[in-house]
Design brief:
Elements lengths: L10 E2 L2 E2 L10 E8 L4 E6 L1 E8 L2 E6 L9 E6 L8 E6 L10 E8 L4 E2 L5 E6 L2
Amino acid sequence: MAGGVIANSLNTDTGVFQNNNAYLGIAKAWLSYNASTPALINSFNVSSVTRTATGKYYATFATPMTNTNYTVAGAISSTSGGSASSTWITDDVNNPRTVNNIYLWTLSGSGGAFDNNPNVNIVIFGN
């Protein structure tokens, strides 16, 4: 293979990369969490998830984003009874996104009531 490099770590003048924020076009953070608890199931570049009210959470990044112009996508499981669920990412005036965290809302069913869904999956892309 010409021109290929395989390495277990990449050293820079500021140390070894602990995450992939240095690379373009790949996820900068992702998390899977149980909103009922709330507890992280698995994550990358997310140090914690905190519930502030029913269906309202914020995730804290282990390494900050380079700016607040990142893209967030998500999916959650259906709640009991088979009601459809949706994920809302809030950027409201009371809880603006920052380089350190993102606020997440989870709602269920056609009425859009806040709900603590059991399996929330979020991915963040940015510079």
